[in-house]
Design a protein that fits this description.
With 218 residues, this protein is an alpha/beta fold. The chain is built from five helices and 16 strands. The chain has one domain: 4-Layer Sandwich (Metallo-beta-lactamase, Chain A), CATH 3.60.15. The strands form three sheets. Strands 8-7-6-3-2-1-16 form a seven-stranded mixed β-sheet. A seven-stranded mixed β-sheet has the order 9-10-11-12-13-14-15, covered by helices on one side.
Length: 218
């Protein structure tokens, strides 16, 4: 199968034949992922706030990584100083083949809240497996029944315009992944999600990591 490494909040490095970094993020003034410590071909950003977009500019300009994002993310990247050839916009209607039998599909997954930034969930399929990173949606929508090997599901709640732990468990059941990994929530919210998922006697395998830890799907 494949491995992934967690860096905190919503930052995940997925190690297919090509490495993909999701939502590198900056919390306060501190990048979650140091540019000089991670090698990644692609940086996939679900929406443009700093806790998700992070230091994507540095990955593109210093390491030559290609940024993948929706129209608002790409517009943000352009204004931040990434040259046009270094980013690519994709949608459900225009999936992206990046080689090594890896396909990236974007799904419109709106956030909750007034004037919330445009959020896109990304499903990445490869011969080694598949991963769905939801970003911060307010619901499941078109993601229902996708059955990825790994689901990165937010549990941060209404304050962040996304799912509560209870809603995240329902979303996980609707999407039906093999493994579920809670992202972006507090320690309390993550524990609540894991406990509720266990109570459900679900066939979904929960994954709990602290920043810097890795996990291999089998």
């Amino acid at each position: 199968m494949f491995s992934f490494t967690y860096f905190g909040y919503a930052a995940i490095l997925v190690q297919f034949e090509k490495h993909l970094l999701f939502d590198p993020g900056i919390i306060g003034t501190t990048p979650l992922v140091a540019v000089n410590k991670v090698k990644t071909s692609y940086v996939v950003v679900t929406h443009e706030p700093d806790e998700h977009f992070g230091n994507a500019v540095e990955f593109a300009n210093q390491k030559g990584s290609i940024l993948i994002g929706n129209s608002s993310v790409c517009d943000h990247a352009r204004k931040a100083g990434i040259f046009g050839y270094a980013f690519t916009e994709i949608t459900m209607n225009s999936p992206l083949e990046i080689g090594a039998n890896i396909l990236i599909i974007g799904y419109n997954a709106p956030r909750g809240g007034f004037l919330a930034p445009q959020n896109t969930a990304y499903l990445v399929k490869s011969k080694q497996g598949s991963v769905l990173h939801m970003g911060h949606p307010k619901g499941v929508g078109a993601l229902e029944g996708l059955k990825p090997d790994l689901l990165c599901v937010p549990v941060a709640g209404k304050k962040h315009g996304t799912l509560s732990p209870e809603e995240a468990v329902k979303a996980t059941s609707a999407i039906h992944p093999r493994y579920a990994f809670p992202i972006s929530g507090s320690e309390t919210q993550i524990h609540q999600f894991l406990a509720l998922l266990a109570e459900q006697n679900s066939s979904v395998i929960p994954v709990s990591l602290t920043p810097g830890q890795s996990f291999t799907l089998v």
